[in-house]
Amino acid sequence: xxxxxxxxxxxxxxxxxxxxxxxxxxxxxxxxxxxxxxxxxxxxxxxxxxxxxxxxxxxxxxxxxxxxxxxxxxxxxxxxxxxxxxxxxxxxxxxxxxxxxxxxxxxxxxxxxxxxxxxxxxxxxxxxxxxxxxxxxxxxxxxxxxxxxxxxxxxxxxxxxxxxxxxxxxxxxxxxxxxxxxxxxxxxxxxxxxxxxxxxxxxxxxxxxxxxxxxxxxxxxxxxxxxxxxxxxxxxxxxxxxxxxxxxxxxxxxxxxxxxxxxxxxxxxxxxxxxxxxxxxxxxxxxxxxxxxxxxxxxxxxxxxxxxxxxxxxxxxxxxxxxxxxxxxxxxxxxxxxxxxxxxxxxxxxxxxxxxxxxxxxxxxxxxxxxxxxxxxxxxxxxxxxxxxxxxxxxxxxxxxxxxxxxxxxxxxxxxxxxxxxxxxxxxxxxxxxxxxxxxxxxxxxxxxxxxxxxxxxxxxxxxxxxxxxxxxxxxxxxxxxxxxxxxxxxxxxxxxxxxxxxxxxxxxxxxxxxxxxxxxxxxxxxxxxxxxxxxxxxxxxx
Length: 543
Description:
Blueprint: H1 6-55, H2 58-62, H3 73-88, E1 92-101, E2 104-107, E3 119-120, H4 126-131, E4 138-139, E5 144-146, E6 149-160, E7 163-173, H5 174-225, H6 240-262, H7 265-274, E8 281-294, H8 297-302, H9 306-326, E9 330-335, E10 338-343, H10 352-376, E11 384-400, E12 403-409, H11 411-426, E13 430-433, H12 434-437, E14 444-453, E15 461-469, H13 475-492, H14 496-509, H15 513-527, E16 538-539
Parallel strand pairs: 11-13, 14-16
Antiparallel strand pairs: 1-2, 1-7, 2-3, 4-6, 5-6, 6-7, 8-10, 8-11, 9-10, 11-12, 13-15, 14-15
Helix pairs in contact: 1-5, 5-6, 9-10, 13-14, 14-15
């Protein structure tokens, strides 16, 4: 079903209410005004009859008895008076005088000269005869209809010295009333149009006042669905319920901002977009996992106060996290000074192995860039160790129904953690498994550190030191890496004498702990050659 906006719905409702109310008021006003027009006409007719009869000379009227009196001074004066009254009152259609003779009504004076003096007024009823002798003004309760049309008519007695000599009658054409009603109708219509238009415009304006804050709420909620908390939001409304909705959205926004600090932002965004509650469940995915921590953090923290440790970790974790998030990492958790993150869930990340390696190099670059500023603030030099591995893990909501954690678990996760710790053995900063480096399309410069067997895991894993991107590596670094890689390949092929010479040349290029380590191993193996089942793998005894 097609949905209308709140503003359109309110505007339609207000508009319809304004139109219906205006029509109802217009009809009521028309009926009322129609009655008032007729009542006003009757009042004016009554006054006009009274004044006309009072000012008319009854004795002169009594002298008019037949058509022979037409043109007499008495007739001329009476007709002149009637014409003057008619001239001052345009609503009058006919004005005349009549006299009752027995059971007949005779015309006496008629300015229109349509009726001879003392001629009959058609046929009359007894009710009509009765009011010709009434002492006061009489108005017909209903419109009078005859061959000349429909009239609002009335009479008033003409008095002479001998008593009542007849009546003066005035007929007001109904068309005059209709003209008045027509004018009033147009006035009512125009008034209704003005009121209705004003009502509709008020409805549109008022609906906008109500809907505008709610439209802002709708837009803010749409942003919250994507976890966009960057825009400031506030609702100013004098309507309590609307203001309460705005406050609720602000509180929800603050809650989401806090929630996002505890749960990976991508996970929160995915939960909001899915329109469903988080439930227990996980799946197997091939992801890249990263672990990092601060080298020698225990000894570093012992030299600082608790407050300094907190400030140091805040700056360190903030810098590391920004770099990781910039490279699409889902930060799983902070474990003291350690950071755990992964790529490829909850949303896919293209070339996640490359992104992880870039992030690791970026973290070291950040520490190098910030080190001077931190030392100036009284903090010791910080060095990070990072381990990266790609493999099949279990990813999803782990825990129980009342408390879930979106995380990754599995043997390959543990291996990534072991690689981070293995940096201590090789005195390196970034260790990457062959499973990760083989998917980076030659984008990075590295050296083979060897094959290791980590504690708690069967089988050897080839590991590499990540040095730089291929485009950023220097000539000196490239020469060293090539020499070292060649030396290790000789070592793995049991060409220990050649390997010893190459490792010695590596030591000449620069001081290197790992080159010295392999030199010593080559000397031992030359002194006591291994059997056919020998493996170049080094077994790690520490986690």
